[in-house]
Amino acid sequence: MKKKEKIEKLCLEHGMIKAQKYNEIPDNYEYTVIFALKNLIDKDFADGRKRYFYFAYGSNVYIYAKALEKQEKNNAEEEKRKLEEQRWDELEEQAEEIDERCEALRRGFMLDTNFNDNNKKQELVKFIVAQVATGVINKAHRFGEVVENQDDENTDSYINEHWSDNSGRMLMATAYALCQRTYEKLSFIYVDYNSKTISRKNSPDLNKFYALLCKLGYVMSDEEIQLRDGTHPIFTTGEVK
After folding, report:
1. What pLDDT is attached to residue 26?
2. Chunked in runs of 10, what are the mean pLDDT values of the chain (241 residues)?
3. Strands (E), 24-171
4. How far is the CA of 159 from the CAs of 154, 166, 170, 176, 197, in angstroms?
5. Of 53, 88, 165, 238, which has the fewest Cβ atoms less than 10 A away?
6. pLDDT by residue (tens digit) across 58-72?
């Protein structure tokens, strides 16, 4: 069962009503919070309030609860605060989706490209040497993502067995594992959870990795270029699309 289906099942088990769109939710229901699957498990909704839920972005769910009768109507300031909080939740989720989308493009290129010609190998060797020389944080799981070797404990034997027929891909996988020299997320998006703002982040590691991929034949998508240049709507207008 997919994550979205599991979330829907949990919500229905709690007696919630599924809405296809936001405007299907009655006016006397108020936005409470956005939930991921891990937040819903073992969550107690036994307060007698009726609830609606709907999916807006990805697999997270937005939950609205019927306003308490004794609760006074929110004034304009409180309503504005809640709308801003909801908008921030959606914007934060959109930033995560953008990063996942761009990472999938890069990984797809590495999986679909033959890196066994000498020019590509030379570029990979130069990149790896430079990364090792400046010190790196090895993301070992990335090697397995590109060579599709799921057994991390047998990586050495896998390399020895397949080096002669697929050394180029292994070099690509190694470059991917070595591309990040800091603990920061490999992204151009900076999410400030304190001030609830999103801005462009300068990422030398990601710039350098894109430069390598482009030398190997990768073509950056329009969205990736906008993120790199700081012209993406998430930076310029903050609009959620």
Report:
1. 83
2. 78 85 80 72 77 76 76 62 83 88 91 88 77 55 60 61 75 82 81 85 90 94 93 80 55
3. 29-35, 51-55, 61-66
4. 9, 9, 8, 16, 44
5. 165
6. 667 788 888 776 555
Tally helices (H) and strands (E) across the chain.
9, 6
pLDDT of residue 58: 66
Cβ atoms of residues 75 and 196 within 8 Å: no
- 67 residue type, one letter: A
Query: Whole-angstrom Cα distance, residue 173 to residue 145?
Result: 8
pTM over 0.90: no
**Residues 6+ positions from 55 with CB-CB distance below 8 Å:** 4, 7, 61, 62
Token pair for 191: 């999410």
Strands 51-55 and 17-18: parallel
Kindly provide the residue ranges of all beta strands, DSSP E only, lying in the chain, ordered along the sequence.
17-18, 29-35, 51-55, 61-66, 189-192, 197-200
Provide CB contacts within 8 A for 32, sequence distance 6+.
51, 63, 64, 65
What's the number of CA atoms in the CB half-sphere (13 Å) around residue 215? 18
CA nearest neighbour of 239 among 88, 98, 101: 88
CB distance 120 to 65 below 8 Å: no
- Asked if 178 contacts 128 with a C-beta cutoff of 8 angstroms, the reply is yes
Q: Which two tokens stand for residue 217?
A: 């034949």
